[in-house]
Amino acid sequence: MGYIEDLRAIVGHRPLIFVGAVVVIVDEIGRILLQQRTFPNGVWGLPGGLMELGESTEEVAVREVFEETGLTVSELKLINVYSGKDHFIKAANGDEFYVVTVAYYTENFIGELSVDIEESIQAQFLTPNELPSQMVKSHRNILNEFLKKHYKM
């Protein structure tokens, strides 16, 4: 079991604070990597996940991207940190939590794109005009901020 599962075994469904990281990965022609997640219900999002004990947010970002996409990212640049009452989640199983999400972007990655079939249906590089309508709301907000501040077309 991981850190989160261990915590849940102790505290049940009570609200917790979790820290996570996501990465906007931009390829050489300006497309953004998104993954269609198996949960919740095939919505699209950015690669990323929650922190384990002892990790920095950068380490979370690198580990999660590799686990979910097979890519190794480097030269992460901060987009923003997202937290507060608007980042409350109640999972289908009743677990409640607030997420502090650190969002990064990079154009530096190596490896062969693949997906972890337990977490993703597919992963694709898409242009900003091709972004799916069914996205994790917080990830859509992160992408909107990234596109406004950092995107070069």
Automatic annotation (TrEMBL):
<protein>
    <submittedName>
        <fullName>NUDIX hydrolase</fullName>
    </submittedName>
</protein>
<dbReference type="InterPro" id="IPR020084">
    <property type="entry name" value="NUDIX_hydrolase_CS"/>
</dbReference>
<comment type="similarity">
    <text>Belongs to the Nudix hydrolase family.</text>
</comment>
<feature type="domain" description="Nudix hydrolase">
    <location>
        <begin position="15"/>
        <end position="149"/>
    </location>
</feature>
<dbReference type="InterPro" id="IPR015797">
    <property type="entry name" value="NUDIX_hydrolase-like_dom_sf"/>
</dbReference>
<dbReference type="InterPro" id="IPR000086">
    <property type="entry name" value="NUDIX_hydrolase_dom"/>
</dbReference>
<dbReference type="InterPro" id="IPR020476">
    <property type="entry name" value="Nudix_hydrolase"/>
</dbReference>
<dbReference type="GO" id="GO:0016787">
    <property type="term" value="F:hydrolase activity"/>
</dbReference>
<dbReference type="Pfam" id="PF00293">
    <property type="entry name" value="NUDIX"/>
</dbReference>
<keyword id="KW-0378">Hydrolase</keyword>
